[in-house]
Amino acid sequence: MLSKFNLLFILVVTLIFSLSGRTQFVEKKITEQQQCLLDRIKDSEAGTKVTEIVDWCKDNLSKERQSTKAKQKPQPGIVTKRLKSEQVSQFDPYTLTPHRRNYMLPVLTTTNINRLQYSDLESYEQRLEDYEAKFQLSFKVPFNKSKLLFEDDRLFFGFTVSSWWQVYSDGISKPFRETNYMPEVFYVTPTDWHPFESNTAIVIGAEHLSNGRSQPLSRSWNRIYAQFIAEKGPFVFTLKPWLRIQEEEKTDPLESSGDDNPNIEDYVGNYQFSTAYRDGDFEYIFRLNHAVETGRGSAELNWTFPLWGKFIGYTSLFTGYGDSLIDYNHKQTRFGVGIALNNIL
């Protein structure tokens, strides 16, 4: 049996633990410590040192807490659920996995159509309509089935094409006013950081954006980016700063090589912040682009709602610069209503 001195020492230790408790969490740890010390006293043989009992309880309680913490990882959020769902069919040769939203806006209005850029084209400038149609097609293809560096990481090739169609302008044969192409390569990996019981991930990628036009309407640029994603339940928050890969300055505006839009970041921004929320069949997304030096940028609000079958109602409100590459330095407010084939979340 333990001596009265050792027993008194243990009781003093437990008393100190008790007096130091200020929160429910601390009190819980104290209770565990007290119970461990009392249980260990009963099972210990004569001659057992008090310090051995205290150290034993400290080590075992620490291991139990670590084990409990590992079991209590945050539940998968809406982005994780989408990625898990995509993995079922993304290697099916008859399936294209959506990347960004695939949609058609039969009516897209504007407060200020960009006529200036088309002044060199005969009859275009005055016959452009303030309302047009827009569609977007976007898909991605994974490179790897098993992990590259970390568990559940993926390397993708993505491609997105967006077109603005002057379908209501009879005077100029209903042309496609602008089409933007964006091939990209990006790497996605989850992290072990779970602030506020959220799940996080990091995306690193490179994008090429071009409208495929000849001079003087040619627009293009390249950028690399890092994106931080945090999800918790139906909420998602992202921060995406980018760095433009600079091109040589043109000596003649009609040259095919060189920078078509040298000050594009002053208008479309240096980073994007977005937040999204999924409520059943309804999805809400807000995006904000911001240029650090000039304060310019854009804001966009999208929301979707169920229609029938695989078709989804889609509504978009945009204000600012950079609705398209040709409009990168042109400010306007746009509103459109149409149909989407997939949600983002």
Features:
6 helices, 39% strand, 12-stranded antiparallel barrel, 345 residues, alpha+beta, Outer membrane phospholipase (ompla), Chain C
Written account of the structure:
With 345 residues, this protein is of the alpha+beta class. The chain has two domains: 4-71, no CATH class; 78-340, Phospholipase A1 (Outer membrane phospholipase (ompla), Chain C, Beta Barrel), CATH 2.40.230. It is 22% helix and 39% strand. It has six helices and 13 strands. It has a twelve-stranded antiparallel barrel. β10 and β11 form a beta hairpin. α1 (4-19) packs antiparallel against α2 and α2 (24-43) crosses α3 (50-71). It is elongated and about 105 Å long. The model is unreliable at 4-29 (pLDDT under 50).
Helix content: 10-25%
Low-confidence stretches: 4-29
- What name does CATH use for the topology of the largest domain? Outer membrane phospholipase (ompla), Chain C
Rg result = 30 Å
**Mind telling me which CATH architecture of the largest domain this is?**
Beta Barrel
CATH uppermost class of the largest domain? Mainly Beta
| Proportion of residues in extended strands | 35-45%
Strand order of the largest sheet: 2-3-4-5-6-7-8-9-10-11-12-13
Q: Count the beta strands.
A: 13
- The H/E string reads HHHHEEHEEEEEEHEEEEE
Structural class: alpha+beta
Number of discrete helical segments:
6
Domains, number:
2
Mean pLDDT: 86
Task: Indicate the overall shape.
Answer: elongated
